[in-house]
């Protein structure tokens, strides 16, 4: 087993033809900060280019897959636009490009020609759901919990969940989860089809599935993924482009600022629609 160690937020190891990508944080709960967003697309581009890699297993370290976006760590990205109250056109343009870069990082998982198996333990929130919906197969432990929580913190989810989930669990279930922001457990995720299996040792099961994929003819496997993605990823990209513009205009809102204050003060947010 070979390990690549020049990364802060991810650990990449190789077990024969299967590459394993483990989320490390370093923020609590493997929250996704600047290092993660820089390293994820780099890692998946490199794995895509390696002929000896036939499948990828993606999972979290510790007790959780990911708490999602590291809000304190990413605060410098939001601050200039918030302080300008959205009145600076250059800041809005730069912010749209920042959103696009985060979207492209998640999409690097979907664009990787090698199938990706996501194994979920513990919490998978917000950006974590964005990432696993870009994977090809998702399995979870019985204790896993999920949430498309952006609506509760004053954000329209903009990194892929709203674009990819309808094709996985259907439009009705996506609307239910995205509009309420409610948490749901592994049994519900399995019922909806977000995950296809529940396993007590979910990483071991993920390894079995990745090895099973890797034993098949590699060009055929890649062809299957490419054909399946042909229509769905084009539609996803169109939706991602739309939400870039929406959030660039929307995020300098009082409700978003209130969500940040409420999070810092550990209290329920009070939204006014401003």
What keywords describe this structure?
274 residues; 2-enoyl-CoA Hydratase, Chain A, domain 1; seven-stranded mixed sheet; 15% strand
Describe it for me?
This protein is of the alpha/beta class and 274 residues long. 53% of the residues lie in helices and 15% in strands. The chain has a 7-stranded mixed sheet, with helices on both faces. A 3-stranded mixed sheet has the order 6-8-9. A hairpin with a 5-residue loop joins strand 1 and strand 2. It is globular, with a radius of gyration of 18 Å. The chain starts with a strand and ends in a 9-residue tail after the last helix. The model has no long low-confidence stretch (mean pLDDT 91).
Q: Which class best fits the helix and strand makeup?
A: alpha/beta
* CATH level-four homologous superfamily name: 2-enoyl-CoA Hydratase, Chain A, domain 1
- Gross morphology is globular
The overall pLDDT average reads: 91
Q: How many domains would you count in the coordinates?
A: 1
CATH architecture: Alpha-Beta Complex
Order of helices and strands: EEEHEHHEEHEEHHEHEHHH
What is the overall number of helices? Answer: 10
Residue share in helix: 40-55%
* CATH domain fold name: 2-enoyl-CoA Hydratase, Chain A, domain 1
């Amino acid at each position: 087993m070979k390990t690549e160690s020049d990364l802060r937020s991810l650990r990449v190891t190789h077990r024969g033809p299967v590459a394993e990508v483990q989320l490390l944080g370093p923020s609590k709960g493997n929250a996704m900060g600047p290092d993660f967003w820089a390293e994820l697309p780099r890692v998946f581009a490199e794995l895509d280019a390696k002929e000896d890699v036939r499948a990828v297993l993606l999972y979290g370290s510790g007790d959780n897959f990911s708490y999602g976006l590291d809000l304190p760590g990413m605060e410098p990205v939001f601050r200039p636009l918030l302080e300008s109250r959205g009145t600076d056109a250059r800041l809005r343009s730069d912010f749209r490009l920042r959103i696009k870069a985060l979207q492209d990082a998640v999409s690097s998982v979907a664009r990787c020609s090698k199938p990706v198996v996501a194994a979920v333990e513990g919490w998978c929130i917000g950006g974590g759901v964005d990432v696993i919906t870009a994977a090809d197969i998702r399995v979870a432990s019985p204790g896993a919990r999920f949430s498309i929580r952006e609506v509760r913190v004053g954000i329209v989810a903009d990194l892929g969940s709203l674009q990819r989930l309808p094709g996985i669990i259907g439009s009705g279930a996506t609307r239910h989860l995205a509009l309420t922001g409610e948490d749901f457990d592994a049994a519900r995720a399995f019922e909806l089809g977000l995950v296809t299996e529940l396993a007590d040792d979910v990483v071991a099961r993920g390894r079995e599935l990745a090895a099973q994929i890797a034993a098949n003819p590699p060009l055929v496997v890649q062809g299957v993924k490419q054909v399946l993605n042909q229509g769905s990823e084009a539609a996803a990209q169109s939706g991602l482009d739309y939400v870039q513009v929406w959030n660039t205009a929307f995020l300098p809102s009082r409700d978003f600022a209130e969500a940040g204050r409420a999070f810092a003060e550990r209290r329920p947010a009070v939204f006014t629609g401003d």
